[in-house]
Amino acid sequence: MQDISRDGRVLVHDNLPREAMIFGDLEGGRVRDLSWLDGSRLADLSKDGTRVLFSESIHGKSPRGDVFLRKTDGSPAIRLGDGEPLQISPDGEWVSTLAGETPRKLVLLPVGAGEAKTVPLGDIEAYDATFVPGSRLLAVYGKRPGTGERIFLMDWEGRDVRVVGPEDPAGSPTFASDGKRVVIKSVKSGEQIWRMDGGGPTPLPGLAPRDRVLQWSGDGRVLYLRTGGALPAELERYEIATGRKEAWKKLEPVDLAGVDRIGMILVSSDGRHYAYSYGTTTKSDLYVIDGLQARLW
Q: Alpha-carbon distance 139 to 41, whole Å?
């Protein structure tokens, strides 16, 4: 509601939001808009930077959700199935999704020919799932009845379930490309490195509370970070051995008109490519309403 006239007419507006998706090449400086419909929401960028996984979140969204895969060369998007897309497998042959009503099913969709696989979760309610590189394991972020959130490690058949990481994880883990180390954020202790073969966590000194780990470098020596949530989005490189941080990249759309947020940001493991989605409200429709009445409830 914007205004009310003396004769009782009401002026209202209806915002028209949009979500867009950007892919960039750090070496050549090329930037490509990979948006498909009006609400392209990024979920993942393949490790080699050649494909993006995304959904449609506004008017183009289907009732059961959408899982789209698109090559970053601008080729047409391919719809793989229903659900909420999560991640592309390290070998590029599968994508993980959450489908159905709560509790949702964890479903693996083939990128090429093949049948979908539903991962049996038992009594675990899943919020997210991450592929463990170099294995057929999944790290499922979720919880069991009567407990807090945990990270459950299991195979694709839902077997050999065990809890990994801290007792108070604050989201899904981020694995190194060899699958042997993983960054997990603890509510109390912040970002830490855990070894998959056991042992306690290794702190990451120098990280601020609002720093978020986006990706490991391919050689496992550097973490790419997002600092804060302001515009433009500021990215940094963090050297694990020394704790040294350095500014790396600032991301923002060329046209900032109506941009109100930058959402998911992803970096390829070689540090050569990045992708992000952002939201805009660029225009709105105005309406004058006659005869609007107040009602007491």
A: 23
Cα–Cα dist 56/63, whole Å: 11
Neighbours of 6 (CB within 10 A): 5
Condensed to tens digits (0 to 9), the pLDDT of residues 124-170 reads 999 999 999 999 999 999 999 999 999 999 999 999 999 999 999 99
Q: What is the per-residue pLDDT across 188-224, written as a single tens digit (0 to 9) for each?
A: 999 999 999 888 899 999 998 889 999 999 999 999 9
Print burial letters for 250-274: b (CB count within 10 Å at least 16), e (below 16). Answer: ebebeeeebbeebebbbbbbbbebb
E strand intervals along 57-104: 67-71, 78-81, 84-88, 94-99
Integer Cα distance of 114 and 284 in angstroms? 44
Specify whether the CB–CB gap between 281 and 2 falls below 8 A: no
Question: Side-chain half-sphere of 76: how many Cα atoms within 13 Å?
Answer: 3
Contacts of 96 (CB under 8 A, 6+ apart): 85, 86, 87, 89, 106, 107, 108, 109, 129, 130, 131, 138
Q: How far apart are alpha carbons 227 and 146 in whole angstroms?
A: 34
Distance between CA atoms of 239 and 252, rounded to whole angstroms?
25
Which residue(s) pair with 181 in the sheet?
195
Which secondary structure element, helix H or strand E, spans residue 212, and what is its range? Answer: strand 211-216
Torsion sign (Cα): 59, 62, 63, 64: negative
The terminus-to-terminus CA distance of the chain in angstroms comes to 20
Residues 6+ apart with CB under 8 A from 297: none
